[in-house]
Amino acid sequence: MPHADSALVPSGLSKTEFWEHVHGQLASLLDGQRNWVTNLANASSLIYSSLLAFEPYFGDGDRAVNWCGFYVDSPLFPVPRTSQTDVGAMEVNLHRLLLGPFCGKPACQLINVTPGKARGVCADAYMERRTVLVSDVEAYPGHIACDGETKSEVVCPLILRADGEQVAVGVLDLDCLVLGGFDEEDRIGLEKIAELVVGACDW
Predict the structure, then answer these.
(1) Is the pTM of this model over 0.70?
(2) Which of 14, 94, 118, 149 is deepest in the core (most CB within 10 A)?
(3) Digits of tens for pLDDT over the chain (203 positions)?
(4) Nearest to 67 by CA among 95, 98, 100, 96
(5) What are phi and psi of 130, to 5 degrees?
(6) Closest by alpha carbon to 27, among 163, 186, 201, 170?
(7) How far apart are CA 168 and CA 130, in angstroms?
């Protein structure tokens, strides 16, 4: 099967069935690959494309998911080999998530998750190690608006579980054009996908 066909969505699915379908398609797509950049790129594309095809819950109209992607803990990014930036002038005490693979319009390049300075939906999901479901982003304290058209959002932390510890390595972030665009079924489905993605990658 061509890789692009993994984003095809059968008609008549319930939300629960839809997320089970996406999970299965993604598991096959990630099989045999452990690089997190490659896997997050395919994951964001598959989720985004599948949601655009999932009528009547989302689709490509006024209920569309307008952004789907990842923010990843900055130490996990490769160290630059060459740079024109004065490394000594960089903020060495800034703990941040950097923009990773995504689908949608250009987005915020980093999320500050330094204790005491963190704010916004992505930062809260990362810091609190829990999914944050926001029905109205304008009403959310500290919301960071990357796209003014976004009305609702859901963010799942990426939790790496090893040796009895839980370490957050980033977040999976989705935005929607309509108020209340996401519900508990979406949260459950996305949390399973986040777990799949974390387990499929070497960090």
Answers:
(1) yes
(2) 118
(3) 678 888 899 999 999 999 999 999 999 999 999 999 999 999 999 999 999 999 989 999 999 999 999 999 999 998 877 776 655 544 555 689 999 999 999 999 999 999 999 999 999 999 999 999 999 999 999 888 888 999 999 999 999 998 888 999 999 999 999 999 999 999 999 999 999 999 999 99
(4) 100
(5) -145, 155
(6) 201
(7) 10
Helix axes 184-200, 36-52, angle to 10 degrees: 150
Rounded Cα distance between 72 and 171, Å, is: 7
Helix, strand, or coil here: 140? coil
Strands (E), 120-196: 132-134, 152-162, 165-176
Question: In the chain, which residue ranges form alpha helices assigned H by DSSP?
Answer: 15-30, 36-52, 121-128, 184-200
Residue 35: CA atoms inside 13 Å, Cβ hemisphere, count?
8
Kindly list the distances between the CA atom of residue 17 and the CA atoms of 9, 71, 114, 143, in Å, as whole numbers in the listed order. 10, 27, 38, 31
Q: Are 7 and 46 in contact (CB under 8 A)?
A: yes
Which residue type does 61 have?
Answer: G
Per DSSP, the three-state class of 55 is coil
Q: Tokens 């130490």 sit at which residue? A: 75
Q: Edge-to-edge strand order for the sheet containing 110-112?
A: 110-112, 96-104, 65-73, 165-176, 152-162, 132-134
